[in-house]
Amino acid sequence: DQQRYASIRERPCVTRDGARIALLMNAGLMADLPSLVSSGAEGVGLFRTELQFLTRNKVPRRGELASLYARVLDAANGKAVTFRTLDIGSDKVLPYMKATEEPNPALGWRAIRVGLDKTGVMRMQLQALLRAANGRPMDIMFPFIAQLEEFLEARAHLTREIHRETSLGHVLPATIRVGAMLETPSMAFAPRTFFEAADFISIGGNDLKQFFFAADRENERVRRRYDTLNVSYLSLIEQIVGRCDETKTPLSFCGEDAGRPVEALCFAAMGLRSLSMRPASIGPVKNILLKSDLSEVRTVINAAREAGEQSVRGAVMEYLRGR
Ligand code: PEP
Ligand code: MG
């Protein structure tokens, strides 16, 4: 399949009406990195750091993590990599973490909530990331931010670690960009200061969608029940795009839906200009975007919304078949 899309691999992703869409890949292992070249991804939009924690029987050491992250940056060869700090709890439980019985783990003590309550591991990971950069640019994002204060607190921890690195005489990254993952509907309506405080925002669509529709992403009985192209969900995306535009905050989308061509097309029509997905999806997504006129797709979406449809999928599919 990669073969099929080889002819467009080096082509920048520009739609027929001139919108430039950045296509990035998600990764979590060293073994994923060669896909940066074979897929034509422009960078790693989401590097999930959980695996190194999940596959050990104790917390990995700072030096070990720093050298792994440095190898990730080496392999990226100048392309940007966005590292997400540890996102555990819910479906990802560390074998050596005291199991906390929670009635609703997806709504429980997870991700940044753990990081902010037990700061030791997060601070160690931030140190490892700062050292891994060793003078190169470093992009870090915090998972599962549900209110402004959590982002400010996480960012303050990073600032403290930056000062500590300086006082220890370590080389700092050339640039440090600090982002938030937007995975709860609350953040679409956050105060303006949130959008100003974040250097960039990445929508975690897997979680955002599960919380928006109150449908467990892990539960086979309900997880496919709600269409991503449901007008309510597209309006949420539109709201987030609008909020980020107001403050000129760079916005990306990194859930699985970004890798589905029709979904990706509709997201782009709603204003998203950066999508991060599994490497194998980059070809098919680029293929549909190159052939599309986003303003036409937007007109189809708006017409379906005005007609009172529940989802725009039918209208968009009909448009795609007819063009
Ligand atoms: C998401 O929630 O969409 C996401 C990218 O993070 P994860 O799937 O790791 O929760
Ligand atoms: Mg998530």
TrEMBL record:
Lineage: superkingdom: Bacteria
Organism from which the protein derives: Jannaschia seosinensis
Gene transcribed to yield this protein: ptsI
Indicate what this protein is called per its UniProt record: Phosphoenolpyruvate-protein phosphotransferase
What family does the database annotate?
A: Belongs to the PEP-utilizing enzyme family.
Q: Where is the signal peptide?
A: none
